[in-house]
Amino acid sequence: MKRQRQPPQPSRRRYYVNHAGSGSEVEEIANPLAPPPIFEPVPQQKLTAPVVQQGPAGPIIQQQLTENAIAISEYIIEVVVDAFRICRRVFSYALGIFILWLLLSMMTSQLVFFTRPVCSIPIISPMIPFCRWDVFKDPPVHTSSGKPMWADYPHLVDLQTRSFDQLLDENVGNKGLALEVKKAEMASNDLITLVRVSDLRSKDQIAERLSRFVEDAKGTGRSLHSLGAKIHGAVDSIASLNDYAMQTIEDSKNPPPLAARVFPFAVSTTNPTKEAVLETFLMSMDNIGSQVVRLREEAEISMDHLLRLEEHLQVLHEITHRDDKDLTAAREDVLAELWTRLGGNKSKIRKADLNLNLLKNIDKYRKKALAHVVATLQTLHTLDADMEELRTRVVAPDIVGDKIPIEVHIKSIKAGVERLKEGQLRASLKQGETIAKILEIDS
């Protein structure tokens, strides 16, 4: 049987619709009368996350930080620039005021410089209005507390050198006498031993009085040494303060460089050099006053010890004369007479002769030391009176004294320091020679 040939079927394309519903493609049918297309489901695939290749994160972070820092810096710079732009007018006003003040200061200083001589004339100054300005007047000085209105270093230095030269010369003798008194003190101790074992009726009273004599002799030696040390200390203090005053005055003549450059024409109502001179002058006077008080107290202590030695010798003379009528020696030889009477010089050793000589001359040493101490007190009293007179004079206005050049003050201070140091060295050499002679006699 012959097979019938089938008519050709229209070609078809199959389209798949995805599960997400985003596609709309369907099978296209060539023949409109063809049956509806057959939709076949798309096989479901397993979804997997995309794989991201991981690389080094450090450079990326560093780049971001750099960009952020640059952005912040640009922002800050913009803010600062805007602020300066806003304040530019204020700065302009301030600079203009400063330049105007500088010009006025320069003009005022020149006016003061050229018209000060005219304003200093008493008759003309009341007729000129600007002469009543404060810049033409000296700064007021309050003298209620005794502060000086002007300095007189030449007179002050002369008082220092004259007075302390005398004190140093007197101190040369005091050093030697203090050593002699010390030796007499030791000889008196030996005499006390002889008195205690003697047959004198008043040996207890004599021994007690001799003990007091030894104690006061010891105090006399200490006070004489202390007086000499304080005299040298006072000279050192005055010389040191004079050096400081000279350096301060010289430094005040040179203004600070920075202030001079910034304010070259500024007018000052005070003179720094004059203030330095007055300040150091007041310090020098106060220092001398305090040194005089210390030395006078020490000299009075020494004189008190020396006077007590004289009193002890007088009492010893009365006791020994009453105890033994044969002891008719004078008051100053009473210790030597006791030494001889009690047999202290029977020994042939050299110490006995030395003790006899010391006891015989003890009153002579005392008188010499008393004379030196009295001379020291007299010098101190004179210096104190001269300083009081100088203090009274400088607290009052003085036309001549106020015009003493600064160079004269500096020269006077320098010369005074040199004289004080030379006098101290000369006194030290004399003291060494005196002590050497005393020690040579004892050897």
Describe the protein in words.
- Keywords: Membrane, Transmembrane, Transmembrane helix.
- The chain crosses the membrane at residues 93-114.
- It contains eight helices and no strands.
- α2 (153-196) runs antiparallel to α7 and α3 runs antiparallel to α8 (406-442).
- The protein has 443 residues and is an all-alpha fold.
- It has two domains: 64-136, no CATH class; 153-442.
- The longest helix is centred in the first third of the chain and has 62 residues, at 58-119.
- The protein is elongated, with a radius of gyration of 55 Å.
Q: Approximately what portion of the residues adopt beta-strand conformation? A: under 5%
- Rounded to an integer, what's the Rg over CA atoms? 55 Å
Q: How many structural domains can be distinguished in the coordinates?
A: 2
- Structure summary, number of beta strands: 0
Q: How many helices?
A: 8
State the separation between the terminal residues, measured CA to CA: 183 Å
Major sheet description: none
How much helix is in the residues?
A: 55-70%
pLDDT averaged residue by residue:
71
SS-based class: mainly alpha
SSE pattern, N- to C-terminal: HHHHHHHH
* Oligomer kind: single chain
Task: Give the overall silhouette.
Answer: elongated
Given as residue ranges, the uncertain stretches (5+ residues, pLDDT < 50) are 15-31, 138-145, 264-269, 345-353
